[in-house]
Design a protein that fits this description.
Blueprint lengths: L9 E6 L7 H12 L8 E5 L3 H10 L7 H19 L5 E4 L4 H6 L7 H8 L8 E6 L2 E5 L9 H24 L5 E4 L15 H16 L4 E2 L5 H13 L8 E4 L2 H12 L4 E5 L4 E4 L17 H12 L1 H7 L6
Parallel strand pairs: 1-2, 1-3, 3-10, 5-8, 6-7, 6-8
Antiparallel strand pairs: 4-5, 4-9, 9-10
Length: 324
């Protein structure tokens, strides 16, 4: 980990997320823990939430429950954060956990902060990707926060743009010009030759062939069974072995995230690729069940901070975002 002091302070903008969740608690703990870090003087910490509004809202919402009021506060804060990032008042945006239900209760149709920030920048869901990164174990979710019954159609609709966007992100963020990409099948055991699902044969194999030629990909796999693929990736991470692939593309949320959360804990970063600035987020939710019990960990905020420091040289060289 290269945490060498940059030429000027890095401005990190933070949002607390859902005020009924653990966001305020972990930010407080993060601020304390930061004091013991050797890189603390390299940073300027900017809390984007209006503290007066935070105190008023917290007094009116019930801890551990989604609410319209929490959602409205989060929306206002995200809009302010987006504006600050666009105007280069902050170098990076780090968002706290937010309940999607709170957004919905506040009248927001976006399925999460990723989609909300995309919409704020005039981008469609096909133009942004959700990465989860823990060292060289990098995963993209081809579909995100949608019902299982909708996954197959969404996957078919979005798969090609996901690979294109992810390929570009690998080159821009990680400077890997010819990434090795592993593709997870949609169905268990990749459909067993059509016995338990046909999407691999009817769509996915053909789409991969087209993308391999279009993007001049040296290594992109045929559909691989998700259980074996992510089990091996998880074992590689645990045993500190180099990953066989530079990027794993999961068909849906729960193919990859249980493995990532099991092996990496709070040491993974949720990165949104495609925005006109760099946004990362904690790799966990609002943890409504432990609010106010002093059990929440600030480690994910530390991990996000260190990710930004490690990648700051890329931002300074490109003079834009991780995805230019």
């Amino acid at each position: 980990m290269d945490l060498s002091k940059p030429s000027k302070k890095i401005k990190l903008g933070f949002t607390l997320g859902d005020l009924a969740g653990i966001g305020p608690e972990i930010f407080t703990k993060f601020s304390r823990e930061l004091e013991s870090k050797e890189y603390k003087d390299s940073l300027e910490i900017i809390l984007i939430d209006d503290l007066l509004n935070v105190e008023i809202t917290k007094s009116l919402v019930k801890k551990g429950e989604a609410s319209e009021l929490s959602g409205k506060h989060a929306i206002a804060t995200l809009k302010k954060a987006n504006s600050m990032a666009i105007n280069q008042e902050i170098d990076y945006l780090i968002t706290g956990p937010l309940a999607k239900e709170s957004l919905s209760l506040a009248g927001e149709e976006s399925n999460g902060q990723t989609e909300f920030l995309a919409k704020e920048n005039g981008l469609s869901k096909e133009e942004v990707e959700m990465f989860f990164i823990c060292e060289d174990f990098r995963t993209v979710l081809a579909t995100r926060h949608i019902a299982i019954k909708d996954v197959a159609n969404e996957f078919i609709s979005k798969f090609k743009s996901t690979v294109r966007n992810s390929h570009r992100a690998m080159k821009e963020i990680f400077k890997i010009n010819k990434p090795k990409i592993a593709i997870s099948g949609l169905n268990p055991h990749c459909g067993e030759n059509g016995l338990i699902g046909t999407e691999e044969q009817s769509f996915l194999i053909k789409a991969i062939s087209v993308l391999k030629k279009e993007l001049n990909l040296v290594t992109i796999t045929e559909p691989l069974a998700a259980d074996s693929l992510f089990a091996q990736a998880g074992q590689n991470f645990i045993n500190k072995k180099k990953q066989e692939y530079d990027l794993y593309i999961a068909a849906y949320h729960d193919q990859a995230l249980p493995v990532i959360k099991a092996v990496a804990g709070f040491n993974a970063v949720n990165l949104t690729a495609g925005l006109p600035y760099i946004r990362v987020s904690v790799d966990h939710g609002t943890a409504f069940d432990i609010v106010g019990q002093n059990k929440a960990s600030a480690q994910s905020l530390i991990t996000c901070t260190e990710f930004c420091i490690n990648n700051n040289n890329i931002r300074e060289k490109t003079k834009c975002s991780l995805i230019c």
